[in-house]
Each structure stands twice: as C-alpha cells, then as structure tokens.
C-alpha cells in the first residue's frame, strides 16, 4: 500500500573508479549484489537494486567508474555512467577523502553542470582519515560545485549511511512503489554468478590481468530434486601468458578462484554447487565490438 506521502525514484552512484560506489550500494540495500575489489574499473555495467521502506522506494543505479578510456570496453563503461546521469532523480557523487581535486573530479563536475538533477556529494572512506580533516575536504569540494548536500561517510564501516538514505528521501518526488518488496535487483542469477567468478579472479590476480578478464556462463542447471546446481563457466583473458597465470602452477590459481566463487554462489543459491571453470584466450577482446557484445557489454544497451 502506498500513501500520499510515499516517495520513489531513481538514484545513481557515480564517481571515479575505486571510490566505493558498489560497496556503498551493497551496504545500503543490505545485500551483496554488485562485486567490489581494490582494483579500479571493477564495475562494468549499470546495476540496479531496490531499497524499500515505509517512507518509499529507492532504486539505486550503480555505474562503472568514470575514467579516461583506453579501449572500447572503457568507452562503453564511461558511456554507461554518463548516460545514467540524465535518467535519475538524485545523483550520489562519491569521492575519496582528500583535498586534492584532480582532473578526474573536475571532469565529473563539468558533466554534472549539464544536469539539473540534485547532486549529493558523499565523501567516502572517512574511516581512513582524522575527523578534523573532514571539514577541509568539504570546503574544497564546495568550491567546485553547488551541491544539494555533502555527507561524509564510510561504506565499509556503515558510518552515516542512514543519513544518506534520509537525505535521498528529502530530494525524491512523491510517487508509487515501482517494484514489489521482494525485488532486490534487476540482475539475473546467471549474471551475478558470472560477476562473482570475475570478482574472485580480480581479487586474486595482480596488475594488468584483471582488466582483461570476462566471464561467460556456458551452462547452469539445477539437478532434479533441487539440492545441487551444475555450473560450467569460462574465464576469458587476452593473452596466452595471462592464461598461464590464471591457471597457475598445477592449476592452483584456478582452483583458488573456483573454490572462493563456489562458496559465495552456494550462499546465494542456497544449495550446493558443482562449479567447473575453463580459461580461454580471446586476443584484444576489449577492442572488438563483436566479442564485447558476446560477453555482455552491448553498446545498444547503453
Ligand atoms: N577503508 C575503506 N575502504 C572502502 C570504503 N568503501 C569502499 N572501500 C574499498 O574501496 C575499494 C573499492 O571499492 P568498490 O566498491 O569496488 O569501488 P567502486 O567505486 O565501485 O569501483 P569501480 O567499480 O571500479 O568504479 C574496495 O577495496 C573497498 O573495500 C570505505 O568506506 N572505507
Ligand atoms: Mg563498482
């Protein structure tokens, strides 16, 4: 039942790579839907999740970090983020806790000047700085944009996260409940499975390899009786040398990625999982429209 005071709308999380957008979204909705890692450019597609309470419904839209694209995949990711800006009721711009405002932040501020949507600045990761410093960050950011609000927070520790929800509601229009209360995300289970495997690969591998990885689910079938799901998936990488590293000595790396992913997939599906992983090389797939589309990054969807 919705009432006259019920509010609803779309709220995007934007910012440079690695500032904690996906961590914050997961925290706010109380579930891990978007994958996270300490490697920049973890999120590649827009990911919608739903927060429902008695005040209303917030549809969060997590986006890829805005960065200088070096290939077609990068261009695709930045387009996803920038397109989303015009389709929402409130923008949450996340930044690192710092007085240094670089070209990346200035570029985002310029994009924001083109929209009339209220922008709430979230200075994230305040658990990593001294309390006294926070005012200085706020002062610096005030100079570059006329924010609706500025909220220092920690997505990791859950500091000021309720404040973010309350503030978002302040700026949301009155409206109907879009989704039923059980709906948490628009992401199909298969997609979340692929992402969880990619997350474990991202977290286990060093340097340039993670950026060149995609994951495809080749088969996913629940056995009769509903106690076990068989999943076959392929990790795609860009070079033969990367394939060797992903498999590891005697298969140790692939086994590690597989067992970490399996545990989380089992939690999500609430049943045992039999996961088989393969590794394939597709040279420079990040610059091929055809291959990108195959792996779920279709320009037409942006
Ligand atoms: N200390 C601290 N670390 C955080 C906080 N929020 C996120 N992180 C860490 O920052 C890293 C990046 O987090 P993500 O949520 O993947 O960042 P993102 O902005 O979604 O990154 P992209 O998807 O690459 O654009 C991870 O290692 C997180 O654990 C925070 O409040 N405090
Ligand atoms: Mg992310």
From TrEMBL:
GO terms for biological process: ribosomal small subunit assembly. Residues 124-127 are annotated as: G4. Keywords: Cell membrane, Cytoplasm, GTP-binding, Membrane, Nucleotide-binding, Ribosome biogenesis, RNA-binding, rRNA-binding. Residues 153-155 are annotated as: G5. Residues 15-22 are annotated as: G1. GTP binds at residues 15-22, 62-66, 124-127. InterPro entries: G_ERA_dom, GTP-bd, GTPase_Era-like, KH_dom-like_a/b, KH_dom_type_2, KH_sf_prok-type, P-loop_NTPase, Small_GTP-bd. It is a peripheral membrane protein. Residues 41-45 are annotated as: G2. Residues 62-65 are annotated as: G3. SUPFAM superfamilies: P-loop containing nucleoside triphosphate hydrolases, Prokaryotic type KH domain (KH-domain type II). Residues 197-283 form the KH type-2 domain. GO terms for molecular function: GTP binding; GTPase activity; ribosomal small subunit binding; small ribosomal subunit rRNA binding. One of its GO terms (cellular component) is cytosol. Residues 7-174 form the Era-type G domain. CDD domains: Era (cd04163), KH-II_Era (cd22534). It is found in: Cytoplasm; Cell membrane. Pfam families: KH_2, MMR_HSR1. Belongs to the TRAFAC class TrmE-Era-EngA-EngB-Septin-like GTPase superfamily. Era GTPase family. An essential GTPase that binds both GDP and GTP, with rapid nucleotide exchange. Plays a role in 16S rRNA processing and 30S ribosomal subunit biogenesis and possibly also in cell cycle regulation and energy metabolism. Monomer. This is GTPase Era. The gene is era.
